[in-house]
Amino acid sequence: MELLKVRDLKIFTPDNRSLVHGLNFSIHAGEWFALIGESGSGKSISAFALSALLPNGLRREVQEIQLLGKDLSKLSEWELRKIRGTEIAYVFQDYQSAFTPYFRLGRQMDEVMQAHTDWSKGKRQTKAWEALNEVGLEGAEVYRRYPFQLSGGQLQRAALTLAMMMEPKLLIADEPTSALDAMSANTVLTLLARLKNEKGCAVLFITHDLRCVRRYADRVAIMQNGSIIEAGPKQEVFKNPREVYTQNLLASVPPLYNPPRRLPILGQEPLEEGTLYATTSNA
Ligand SMILES: Nc1ncnc2c1ncn2[C@@H]1O[C@H](COP(=O)(O)OP(=O)(O)OP(=O)(O)O)[C@@H](O)[C@H]1O
């Protein structure tokens, strides 16, 4: 089932320079849709444009942005506010920005629930504790903390909890792990995949991490210079990339297994074909 359908999305600078030149794509309910491509190709601003969150000065033109039978491009800011958080939610690379630094996390989670539900204070607190516990945080404890009292990985898990609080149908994750160390990134990704499956939401995943795309994505779209140049099921695109740009992009990722033979280091045995890339000094 088609959850989101975007037709002819264009984005312009204040001086009318075209940054995104007419994107067309759809995301199916419950799927992991990866948007990849070089830096500056327009992935983030396209994602922001979906719910009219473009930075000041940038302008959007679009034929339609259908989400669950509603055309988001025709909604007022007031109507969009109700949709953000409940039907479409965001997590960003900059997890700090998900929270106001001088309010406790609990208060910020409470505000989201208060805005979108008629739950009692007690029920809201229970829901927040449960949701934090679900992502491996100590709910009752973290609820009382300020953002600066959590590590980056913990804060990103809390940001994910906040985004998923109202069980949106579409989660937009814009490089959610690129500011984290490898362990925390892995925890957040595993969590994201688990929440996606449990809650049945679709994920629009913006990333440079092609290994992660290979692991989690159902479909991929490749952006270059403000256009989607290729899109399709992950297996097809990875196996038979049509565009030279996609071929080069995919070729730039060293495979985890069966890497190409490496030149031997003087005085050392060459690495056997099929060994993992070494990460120590003989790598
Ligand atoms: N507020 C702004 N005013 C003018 N140009 C902008 C603004 N924000 C972004 N841009 C430009 O829009 C283009 C696309 O930016 P965007 O952040 O979407 O790229 P991206 O593909 O997400 O890159 P990255 O992978 O590095 O995050 C870039 O050329 C960028 O300089």
UniProtKB/TrEMBL annotation:
Keyword Amino-acid biosynthesis annotated: no
UniProt subcellular location: Cell membrane
GO molecular function terms listed in the Swiss-Prot or TrEMBL record: ATP binding; ATP hydrolysis activity
The protein's matches in Gene3D superfamilies, at most eight in alphabetical order, are given as: P-loop containing nucleotide triphosphate hydrolases
Where is it found, in Gene Ontology cellular component terms?
Answer: plasma membrane
- GO BP of this protein: peptide transport
What the entry lists under CDD domains is as follows: ABC_NikE_OppD_transporters
- Keyword annotations for this protein? ATP-binding, Cell inner membrane, Cell membrane, Membrane, Nucleotide-binding, Translocase, Transport
User: Which domain of life, per UniProt?
Assistant: Bacteria
Which residue numbers delimit the ABC transporter domain?
4-250
Q: Which residues form the signal peptide?
A: none
Q: What topology does the record note for this protein and the membrane?
A: Peripheral membrane protein
The record ties this protein, via PANTHER family, to: ATPASE AAA-TYPE CORE DOMAIN-CONTAINING PROTEIN, OLIGOPEPTIDE TRANSPORT ATP-BINDING PROTEIN APPD
Q: Please report which protein family the annotation says this sequence is part of.
A: Belongs to the ABC transporter superfamily.
Protein name (Swiss-Prot/TrEMBL): ABC transporter ATP-binding protein
Q: Which organism is it from?
A: Desulfosporosinus fructosivorans
